[in-house]
Amino acid sequence: MKISQEAVTDALVIKSYGDGFLLIQAPNQTQQHITHNCVLSPEGVFDALDLNSFASEQNLSAIEQIQSFNADVVILVNDDGITAHSLKLSRKFAEYGISLEMMSLGAACRTYNLLLNEGRKPIVLIYF
User: Fold this and answer.
1) What is the value of pTM for the model shown?
2) Mean pLDDT across the stretch 25-50?
3) CB-based contacts of 48-54 (< 8 A; 24+ apart in sequence)
4) What is the per-residue pLDDT across 54-92, written as a single tens digit (0 to 9) for each?
5) Which CATH superfamily is domain 36-126 in?
6) Fewest Cβ atoms closer than 10 Å to its Cβ: which of 5, 84, 104, 112?
7) Of residues 112, 40, 41, the one with CA closest to residue 101
8) How far is the first Cα of the chain from the last one, in angstroms, to the nearest whole number?
9) CB under 8 Å to 87, separation ≥6 — which residues?
10) Domain residue extents for the chain
11) How much is the pLDDT for 15?
């Protein structure tokens, strides 16, 4: 599927996506082909976070990393639907005041670009 950005922005936008990849681009930069787990924000692509650490009380640094993005919306790419693990993650995020939305890759990509067009700051946690 191909996605087009309508609003002018300096943010990193998703140009297209498919099974196991994203094509992203910022204005006046070359496109990047992403095939690895990562965190996508309007400012860039960052290393993926260990979501298993969220389930334990031992690792608060992962929560702090999410909070450091100052995101309006945190989207988790989850093609498996609602699972016990995803519900546990959602509850853990909520304990720290972070609302977590779970979506398929396609829905996450479209929502990310739409939120950027609205002037909001989303991040997407991508796990291929």
Assistant:
1) 0.87
2) 94
3) 48/125, 48/126, 48/127, 49/125, 51/76, 51/89, 51/125, 51/127, 54/89, 54/92, 54/93
4) 656 556 777 888 999 999 999 999 888 888 888 888 888
5) MTH938-like (3.40.1230.10)
6) 84
7) 112
8) 17
9) none
10) 36-126
11) 97
Q: Which of 39, 30, 32, 27 is nearest to 17 (CA)?
A: 32
Q: What is the mean pLDDT of the segment spanning 48-52?
A: 81
Residue 4 has pLDDT above 90, yes or no: no
Determine the pLDDT at residue 56: 60
Cβ-count burial of 125 within 10 angstroms (0-12 exposed, 13-18 middle, 19+ buried)?
buried
In the structure encoding, which two tokens stand for residue 98, read together?
């972070």
Mean pLDDT, rounded, for 12-24? 96
